[in-house]
Amino acid sequence: MTKQTRFLVIGAGHGGKAMAAHLALMGFTTKLFNRSMDHIAAIRELGGIDLLGYNGDAREFGRLAQVTDNIEEALQDTDMIMVVVPSSAHAEVAKNMSPHLKDGQIIVLHPGRTCGAIEVAKVLRDENCTADVTVAEAETFIYASRSDGPAQAHIFRIKEAVPIAALPATRTKEVLDRIHEAYPQFIDGGNVLQTGLNNMGAIFHPALTLLNAGWIETTHGDYQFYIDGVSPSVARVLEVLDRERVTVGSSLGLRTRNAMEWLKLAYDTTGSDLYEAIHNQEGYYGIKAPATLNHRYIFEDVPCSLVPIASLGDRFGVSVRGMDSIIRLACIVHRTDYWRRGRTVEKLGLKNYSVSELTAYVNEGILED
């Protein structure tokens, strides 16, 4: 039986294919958009995606209503737009969608990383989009999944509770009411600053990659990323970055989880310090490092996670020297100015906002001139 909400999944990578197939198998009218037809040609020819892990070890076929590289067609007759692309592509996706959006549509970033919803909302304003749409972001991706063929996906795990917030927060209940038809796992994440500053990937991924650059390039990632890569010294750097993130949150009146609390919540793992807690996390054993430094742990997590947190810190008087050092290392290694490319308060239109004005914006949608 087809259910009421009509979904569009944007992005046909590991996560997008799993989400599209799962939604279709749950009985939702589901479309899949990808900007490159080459990447979805097999899915279009077959009419859907084979999914493993949705119902035990059996593969099931999720039949899609449409598979397209035409964004205007994709957005027609769609209620919820699930954006499952690297956060570095959020602005481009928003720009391409802007002329074709309709009143009442809900855009959800899976996940937003840090300030993703704020960036998308600004792009829509800059593009003079007049449609009354709601932009929301998830704190993390709901699936642990992978693509294991041109029209195949595999779901390993579905998270039990994922915070989500709308911009403004007064619309979060509306988003939850709609998305709960498919995903009861989503919970109220407060506001988009809260979801963005609880971004643990910002702390773990870039620093752990860059501080092990020699090992990654020499072994092509043939070592345990979290276990071998987190030495006592590396763990101390992660602790400094984490304290800076939590302090930035405090400067905005937010109580964010620290890394130790996050490890306890996510994995029920404890320790006397971060080094011990990471090594006590059994799930980290066996996870290999990236095979190259040209990896999303740098080119996505630096501009879309570390830069916005550090930029907010600079704006509101928090010392973020640790984060700045990691960002500068990333700039050197990739020969790229991630400060210029990243989500700074200037690019997000927040340069002159006070804490109270920023809070009013994310909670109530009140924009200052």
Structural account:
With 369 residues, the chain is an alpha/beta fold. It folds into two domains: 190 residues, Rossmann fold (3-Layer(aba) Sandwich); 154 residues, N-(1-d-carboxylethyl)-l-norvaline Dehydrogenase, domain 2, CATH 1.10.1040. The protein is 42% helix and 17% strand. The chain is built from 17 helices and twelve strands. The strands form two sheets. Strands 5-2-1-6-7-8-11-12 form an eight-stranded mixed sheet, sandwiched between helices. Helix 5 links the parallel strand 7 and strand 8. Helix 8 packs antiparallel against helix 10, helix 10 packs across helix 14 and helix 14 packs antiparallel against helix 15. It is globular, with a radius of gyration of 20 Å. The mean pLDDT is 95.
Question: What's this entry about, in short?
Answer:
By secondary structure, the protein is of the alpha/beta class. The protein has 2 domains: 7-196, NAD(P)-binding Rossmann-like Domain (Rossmann fold), CATH 3.40.50; 199-352, N-(1-d-carboxylethyl)-l-norvaline Dehydrogenase, domain 2, CATH 1.10.1040. It has helices at residues 14-25, 41-46, 71-75, 90-97, 116-126, 172-179, 192-197, 201-210, 213-219, 232-251, 259-267, 274-279, 296-299, 301-315, 321-334, 338-341, 355-364, and strands spanning 7-10, 30-33, 48-53, 56-63, 66-68, 80-83, 106-109, 134-138, 143-149, 152-158, 162-167, 186-188.
